[in-house]
């Protein structure tokens, strides 16, 4: 019998806004039995009903996506949410701090653009927000230090009046630039993030 590992979180728990003012909490877990998962708001367990809908789906590779949709999100629903998930012989949990209002949203997946014959590599994140927002960049989970070679650039998004492009420009890329980069975009009402791995062939 293979030893069961305790369940673990894969990647980062995510908070996003869905249609019609819904808020969606998602976390991908490994080694968990989704049917046993329990969701909590503060220290109170949530029952699934018309305001809270739980789903889980198989992401492949032993990963399961646990999802809570909060319908018609309003300020009383703001606060700390937690999901506990279980394996045959262990448990773990993920927490979500849901703030009232609209965190920034992303237009598409982050992508990499090369300029100047590959001498400049640009990681491009497109976000929109009804409030002023700012971006913070991380490299392998640590705040990124900028220098002459690595710069953060912000510009208006030409395709969306509420949107901005947050660019990370790396000039003369070197092996040490290979890493997982994360861009956390914040406004007064919340934050959202995207990440990608930069690997050179």
From TrEMBL:
Gene Ontology CC: one annotated term: plasma membrane
Annotated keywords: Disulfide bond, Immunoglobulin domain, Signal
Chain ranges of the Immunoglobulin I-set domain: 104-198
InterPro entries: Cell_Adh-Cytoskel_Orgn, Ig-like_dom_sf, Ig-like_fold, Ig_I-set
Record bears the keyword Glycosyltransferase: no
GO process terms (BP): homophilic cell adhesion via plasma membrane adhesion molecules
PANTHER family: CONTACTIN 5, IG-LIKE DOMAIN-CONTAINING PROTEIN
Protein name: Immunoglobulin I-set domain-containing protein
């Amino acid at each position: 019998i293979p030893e069961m590992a305790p369940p673990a979180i894969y990647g980062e728990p995510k908070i996003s806004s869905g249609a019609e003012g819904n808020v969606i909490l998602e976390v991908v877990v490994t080694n968990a039995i989704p049917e046993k998962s329990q969701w909590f708001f503060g220290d109170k367990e949530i029952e699934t009903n018309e305001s809270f809908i739980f789903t889980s789906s198989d992401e492949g590779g032993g990963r399961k996506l646990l999802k809570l949709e909060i319908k018609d999100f309003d300020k009383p629903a703001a606060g700390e949410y937690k999901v506990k998930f279980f394996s045959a012989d262990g448990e773990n949990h993920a927490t979500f701090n849901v703030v009232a209002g609209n965190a920034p949203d992303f237009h598409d997946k982050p992508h990499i653009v090369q300029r100047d014959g590959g001498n400049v590599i640009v990681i491009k994140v497109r976000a929109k927000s009804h409030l002023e927002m700012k971006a913070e960049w991380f490299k392998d989970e640590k705040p990124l230090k900028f220098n002459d070679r690595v710069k953060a650039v912000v510009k208006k998004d030409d395709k969306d009046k509420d949107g901005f492009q947050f660019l990370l420009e790396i000039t003369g890329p070197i092996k040490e630039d290979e890493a997982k980069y994360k861009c956390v975009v914040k406004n007064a009402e919340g934050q959202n993030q995207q990440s990608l791995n930069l690997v050179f062939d």
